Amino acid sequence: xxxxxxxxxxxSNCGAQxxxxxxxxxxxxxxxxxxxxxxDDKKKNETEILSKISSADIIDLENISSAKTxxxxxxxxxxxRVLGGGLIPGSLILLSGEPGVGKSTLxxxxxxxxxxNNKKESVLYxxxxxxxxxxxxxxxxxxxxxxxxxxxxxxxxxxxxSTILKNKPDxxxxxxxxxxxxxxxxxEAGGVSQIRNIAVKFMELAKRYDIPVFLIGHITKDGxxxxxxxxxxxxxxxxxxxxDGKSAYSVLRSSKNRFGSVNEIxxxxxxxxxxxxxxxxxxxxxxGDISHFFAGSSFSCVMEGNRPFLIxxxxxxxxxxxxxxxxxxxxxxxNRLQVLSAVISKKQKIDLSNQDIILNIVGGFKTxxxxxxxxxCLSVISSFLNKxxxxxxxxxxxxxxxxxxxxxxxxxxxxxxIEKMGFSxxxxxxxxxxxxxxxxxxxxxxxxxVFCKNLGEAILNIFSK
Length: 465
Description:
Elements (H helix, E strand, L loop, with lengths): L4 E7 L5 E2 L15 E7 H12 L24 H7 L8 E6 L5 H15 L5 E5 L4 H10 L7 E4 L4 H11 L3 E5 L16 H18 L3 E5 L12 H5 L2 E6 L6 E9 L7 E7 L2 E4 L3 H4 L12 E8 L2 E13 L7 E4 L3 H14 L7 E7 L11 H13 L7 E3 L2 E2 L5 E2 L4 H10 L4 E5 L4 H10 L4 E5 L2 H9 L2
Helix pairs in contact: 9-10, 10-13
């Protein structure tokens, strides 16, 4: 029954309460002691309930042992890098990706390696989408040790949890969370309330029994993880497996990680026997044969977390045949391309208002690193002028709205990668002190440096030769 606000009359001498006023208190006999009071029954009931509930135990954080949590490495370096060094016992991890991108394949390989390398005993694979025969065929194709894997073809949450509590596996894989349902809720599997409730139950299970849990999650047509946003808040780690559908290379990204950096990525190549980690990712994002270099192509170095990647930027500029000029980009932010096109037109007197611009990052790589600005601009101008850029030079620089070149982060890491890949020249903004310039020249002896203050100077340096 909902509480309500009502008026009572309370004796100032003994505290007795009465629904009506009278001249004399019927409890203590005093005259003229009854006063009007407003009572909120809801607050009164809450106070009574709270007084009966035992208080929670307070933990003094200073007395907790600060021993470092032991991670479970998978020996797949690209995976361990993204996870922050390995798998944390009791963690809840959500893996999403396009259909057919290889989520189940990657998790099977990770589980096999973790169990094998850390002397664990079992993996419980729960699937509401595949049969035991299908899962076995995949595991055999990946050369996984079948004695480590146990399978449940069940979608009822209560049955799954009961089985887990009886068997206590060392690792749990749920494929997928959208197919699991709880019989305690009236809604169908995949509903918002179902997904939220199931995620909470698996989180409690992981924390209480220190079982690492992998959840495979479907995504919507716009690339977002299906289900409520609270699903991503509940889990400890959110991983995304990406592939442009045109190449054999996939990228594993972390958009949330309570145990490590969210800036790291892992690069894999899909083969007939599963994913193989790519030891030198820069090589796959560069052209295989740079002898076919053409106008509109240039090189730059971007950072994904603490990891540098050499990439090839290609631009195609052609006169607009009909209507408004088009701006298309693959792997680069389209809004950023619009801004850079406006800067080129305004500051360099190069009229792009009647030109279509198509930009491509070779290899299906996607990046938001602003250090790519200079390379994008010079690729566009190179295609517009139909003049080639030297294939031995790398461009680094963020472009301001005034056409000025701004500093880039992790400069030394980028330069080490550039030097390792065999390039001989680097063009970047003239924002360093003379002391810093001398240090770079001494540190990177195989590289020659060109410093420019703005885009105009860079154009003169590149295209006036």
